[in-house]
Amino acid sequence: MKRRTHVAHHYVPDFLLKNWHTLPDDKLTQYSWVPGKLDTQRRKAKHVAKEDYLYGTSSATGELDVRVETEFFTQVIDNPGAPVLKQLCSEGTKGLRESERQIWAQFLVAQMARTPAMVKHFQSAAEKDFRDGAQRIADQPGRANFLAYVDTHAPNTGKNIGVEILPEVIGNAKLISAVQAAQWHVMDLSSSPLDLLIGDRPLLIVGPLNMNFLMTLPLTPKHLFCAAFHQGTIDSISRSRPIEIAKTMNKDMVLHAAKYIYATCDLHTPLVRKYLRRT
Question: Is this prediction's pTM over 0.85?
Fold first, then answer.
């Protein structure tokens, strides 16, 4: 029997989450609610923020296709994005070439669309549209058995379309250009005694991308990437003390998370217990 590969699909790249690994076990702390309690575990980044075949499609016979994961998310988004992340952490945004800005802009757009909730949204919408189209055909004279044919020979088409459109959505030139044209800055919060948290929906956005928006993404426990429509927005945040920035971002990150929060240690337990949604 052929061994299946590329089973686990990361919706938060493990090369990003590895920055939260700490000694002595070289792991991160994962928070989530389980029945009756807030669960805290030490995990490797490669073992969290993933779902089996999240970006997979399947044929009528159940054959799985993972090309959206291997040929798009891995080759187009994550592999090019990893070295840009390293450069942002070490040198900030000033030294980025235009090609690197485009890579990172698309990486950020990908974080909007690759979460499990967004994938399910695209699948549900595509499935409804496909089903409605099939129904219109079935309503035509002599086509009464068309829906039964679709159910037998193309049962997964709607959901497959919801996955197959992800490269087009994430490659949207207007979205990428809006992010790429924004003011970028990496805030160094090394002087804060409080580490940044990161969650399973790590990209935070305030405002529409065609107006006065602010976008933030923790890069490490001490580095925060910011993109804003106006430089004044970034300047205003920068005037705050690093610890206050960390406190605000951590609360927003926990409130925004779907299920999981990742940290360097368990010192954030009171905050996570108060604000992480119970699933």
Answer: yes
